[in-house]
Prior knowledge:
Mean pLDDT: 91
Strand content: 25-35%
Number of domains: 2
Strand order of the largest sheet: 2-1-3-10-4
Radius of gyration: 18 Å
CATH architecture of the largest domain: 3-Layer(aba) Sandwich
Order of helices and strands: EHEHEHEEEEHEHEE
Amino acid sequence: xxxxxxxxxxxxxxxxxxxxxxxxxxxxxxxxxxxxxxxxxxxxxxxxxxxxxxxxxxxxxxxxxxxxxxxxxxxxxxxxxxxxxxxxxxxxxxxxxxxxxxxxxxxxxxxxxxxxxxxxxxxxxxxxxxxxxxxxxxxxxxxxxxxxxxxxxxxxxxxxxxxxxxxxxxxxxxxxxxxxxxxxxxxxxxx
Length: 191
Protein backbone atom coordinates (compact mmCIF):
# COMPACT_ATOMS: atom_id res chain seq x y z
CA UNK A 1 0.00 0.00 0.00
CA UNK A 2 1.39 3.44 -0.87
CA UNK A 3 1.43 6.53 1.34
CA UNK A 4 -1.74 7.88 -0.30
CA UNK A 5 -3.80 4.98 1.03
CA UNK A 6 -6.31 5.54 3.78
CA UNK A 7 -6.05 3.57 7.02
CA UNK A 8 -7.70 0.22 6.44
CA UNK A 9 -6.54 0.01 2.81
CA UNK A 10 -9.09 2.27 1.14
CA UNK A 11 -7.64 3.83 -2.00
CA UNK A 12 -9.15 7.27 -2.75
CA UNK A 13 -10.16 7.90 -6.38
CA UNK A 14 -9.08 11.52 -6.16
CA UNK A 15 -7.35 13.33 -3.34
CA UNK A 16 -9.54 15.41 -0.98
CA UNK A 17 -8.90 19.15 -0.91
CA UNK A 18 -8.07 18.90 2.81
CA UNK A 19 -6.24 16.27 4.83
CA UNK A 20 -8.33 17.26 7.87
CA UNK A 21 -10.53 14.86 9.81
CA UNK A 22 -14.00 16.14 10.67
CA UNK A 23 -16.22 15.37 13.64
CA UNK A 24 -18.79 16.99 15.93
CA UNK A 25 -17.65 20.25 17.55
CA UNK A 26 -17.93 23.85 16.46
CA UNK A 27 -14.67 25.46 17.59
CA UNK A 28 -11.14 24.33 18.53
CA UNK A 29 -11.79 24.50 22.28
CA UNK A 30 -15.09 22.64 22.09
CA UNK A 31 -15.58 19.81 24.59
CA UNK A 32 -17.40 17.20 22.53
CA UNK A 33 -16.45 13.61 23.19
CA UNK A 34 -15.92 13.17 19.44
CA UNK A 35 -13.34 15.97 19.18
CA UNK A 36 -11.52 14.60 22.19
CA UNK A 37 -11.57 11.06 20.78
CA UNK A 38 -10.41 12.09 17.28
CA UNK A 39 -7.54 14.17 18.68
CA UNK A 40 -6.47 11.36 20.98
CA UNK A 41 -6.65 8.78 18.17
CA UNK A 42 -4.73 10.92 15.69
CA UNK A 43 -2.75 13.44 17.73
CA UNK A 44 -0.84 14.57 14.64
CA UNK A 45 -3.97 15.17 12.52
CA UNK A 46 -5.80 18.41 11.83
CA UNK A 47 -9.17 17.68 13.45
CA UNK A 48 -11.95 20.05 12.37
CA UNK A 49 -15.21 20.50 14.25
CA UNK A 50 -18.64 20.59 12.61
CA UNK A 51 -22.11 21.46 13.88
CA UNK A 52 -23.28 17.96 12.93
CA UNK A 53 -21.89 14.61 11.84
CA UNK A 54 -24.00 14.97 8.71
CA UNK A 55 -22.18 18.18 7.76
CA UNK A 56 -18.81 16.46 8.22
CA UNK A 57 -20.00 13.48 6.15
CA UNK A 58 -21.14 15.79 3.35
CA UNK A 59 -17.71 17.42 3.21
CA UNK A 60 -16.15 13.95 2.96
CA UNK A 61 -18.56 13.02 0.15
CA UNK A 62 -17.70 16.29 -1.63
CA UNK A 63 -13.98 15.54 -1.08
CA UNK A 64 -13.41 18.63 1.04
CA UNK A 65 -12.20 16.41 3.92
CA UNK A 66 -10.14 13.22 4.05
CA UNK A 67 -12.59 11.54 6.48
CA UNK A 68 -14.75 11.97 9.57
CA UNK A 69 -15.05 10.34 12.99
CA UNK A 70 -18.41 9.30 14.45
CA UNK A 71 -19.18 7.42 17.70
CA UNK A 72 -21.01 4.13 17.43
CA UNK A 73 -23.60 5.42 19.92
CA UNK A 74 -24.77 8.06 17.42
CA UNK A 75 -28.43 7.15 16.75
CA UNK A 76 -28.18 7.84 13.00
CA UNK A 77 -24.93 5.92 12.48
CA UNK A 78 -26.72 3.46 10.20
CA UNK A 79 -27.32 6.21 7.63
CA UNK A 80 -23.56 6.65 7.22
CA UNK A 81 -22.85 2.92 7.17
CA UNK A 82 -25.50 2.29 4.52
CA UNK A 83 -24.53 5.29 2.37
CA UNK A 84 -22.91 3.77 -0.73
CA UNK A 85 -20.66 6.85 -1.05
CA UNK A 86 -18.98 6.18 2.32
CA UNK A 87 -17.01 3.33 3.83
CA UNK A 88 -15.50 2.59 7.22
CA UNK A 89 -11.73 2.82 6.91
CA UNK A 90 -10.90 2.19 10.56
CA UNK A 91 -12.45 1.69 13.99
CA UNK A 92 -10.95 2.62 17.35
CA UNK A 93 -11.89 2.72 21.03
CA UNK A 94 -11.81 5.74 23.33
CA UNK A 95 -12.73 6.12 27.00
CA UNK A 96 -15.25 8.95 27.27
CA UNK A 97 -15.25 11.51 30.06
CA UNK A 98 -17.97 10.82 32.65
CA UNK A 99 -21.52 11.52 31.53
CA UNK A 100 -23.17 13.68 34.17
CA UNK A 101 -26.44 15.35 35.17
CA UNK A 102 -25.96 19.08 35.82
CA UNK A 103 -27.95 22.18 36.73
CA UNK A 104 -27.35 25.71 37.96
CA UNK A 105 -28.74 24.86 41.40
CA UNK A 106 -27.07 23.51 44.54
CA UNK A 107 -29.94 21.07 45.10
CA UNK A 108 -31.79 19.68 42.12
CA UNK A 109 -35.59 19.44 42.45
CA UNK A 110 -37.23 16.07 41.75
CA UNK A 111 -39.49 17.58 39.07
CA UNK A 112 -38.10 19.67 36.20
CA UNK A 113 -39.69 21.54 33.35
CA UNK A 114 -36.92 20.76 30.84
CA UNK A 115 -34.04 18.34 30.42
CA UNK A 116 -31.43 19.03 27.69
CA UNK A 117 -29.32 16.26 26.18
CA UNK A 118 -27.75 14.88 23.01
CA UNK A 119 -29.65 11.96 21.40
CA UNK A 120 -26.74 9.58 22.06
CA UNK A 121 -27.29 9.77 25.84
CA UNK A 122 -31.06 9.18 25.77
CA UNK A 123 -30.57 5.50 26.79
CA UNK A 124 -29.21 6.77 30.14
CA UNK A 125 -32.35 8.75 30.99
CA UNK A 126 -34.47 5.92 32.48
CA UNK A 127 -31.88 5.68 35.27
CA UNK A 128 -32.37 9.30 36.39
CA UNK A 129 -33.67 9.95 39.88
CA UNK A 130 -35.90 12.82 38.74
CA UNK A 131 -38.80 13.55 36.42
CA UNK A 132 -39.04 16.14 33.65
CA UNK A 133 -41.92 17.47 31.59
CA UNK A 134 -40.05 18.10 28.34
CA UNK A 135 -36.96 16.58 26.77
CA UNK A 136 -35.07 18.93 24.43
CA UNK A 137 -32.54 17.22 22.20
CA UNK A 138 -29.47 19.24 21.23
CA UNK A 139 -26.59 18.89 18.75
CA UNK A 140 -23.85 18.07 21.28
CA UNK A 141 -23.02 17.67 24.96
CA UNK A 142 -21.59 21.23 25.13
CA UNK A 143 -24.85 22.53 23.63
CA UNK A 144 -26.81 20.81 26.39
CA UNK A 145 -24.98 22.98 28.93
CA UNK A 146 -25.20 26.23 26.94
CA UNK A 147 -28.91 25.68 26.30
CA UNK A 148 -29.40 25.12 30.02
CA UNK A 149 -27.52 28.32 30.84
CA UNK A 150 -29.49 30.29 28.23
CA UNK A 151 -32.85 29.00 29.49
CA UNK A 152 -34.70 31.87 31.23
CA UNK A 153 -36.32 29.25 33.47
CA UNK A 154 -33.03 27.46 34.21
CA UNK A 155 -34.00 26.97 37.88
CA UNK A 156 -36.45 24.35 36.58
CA UNK A 157 -34.08 22.75 34.05
CA UNK A 158 -31.10 20.42 33.92
CA UNK A 159 -28.80 18.88 31.32
CA UNK A 160 -26.97 15.64 30.66
CA UNK A 161 -23.49 16.37 29.36
CA UNK A 162 -19.92 15.16 29.63
CA UNK A 163 -17.56 16.02 32.48
CA UNK A 164 -15.40 18.23 30.23
CA UNK A 165 -18.34 20.48 29.42
CA UNK A 166 -19.48 20.53 33.04
CA UNK A 167 -16.01 21.60 34.19
CA UNK A 168 -15.97 24.58 31.79
CA UNK A 169 -19.31 26.08 32.83
CA UNK A 170 -20.84 27.39 36.05
CA UNK A 171 -22.94 24.29 36.73
CA UNK A 172 -23.30 21.83 39.57
CA UNK A 173 -22.83 18.10 38.93
CA UNK A 174 -25.64 16.23 40.68
CA UNK A 175 -25.14 12.72 39.43
CA UNK A 176 -22.60 10.71 37.43
CA UNK A 177 -24.65 8.63 35.00
CA UNK A 178 -21.81 6.71 33.37
CA UNK A 179 -18.08 6.47 34.09
CA UNK A 180 -15.26 4.86 32.10
CA UNK A 181 -17.46 4.22 29.08
CA UNK A 182 -15.33 2.69 26.34
CA UNK A 183 -16.88 3.98 23.12
CA UNK A 184 -16.16 2.54 19.68
CA UNK A 185 -15.68 5.18 16.98
CA UNK A 186 -15.64 4.79 13.21
CA UNK A 187 -13.38 6.68 10.84
CA UNK A 188 -15.30 6.99 7.59
CA UNK A 189 -14.05 8.04 4.16
CA UNK A 190 -15.42 8.41 0.66
CA UNK A 191 -15.53 5.19 -1.35
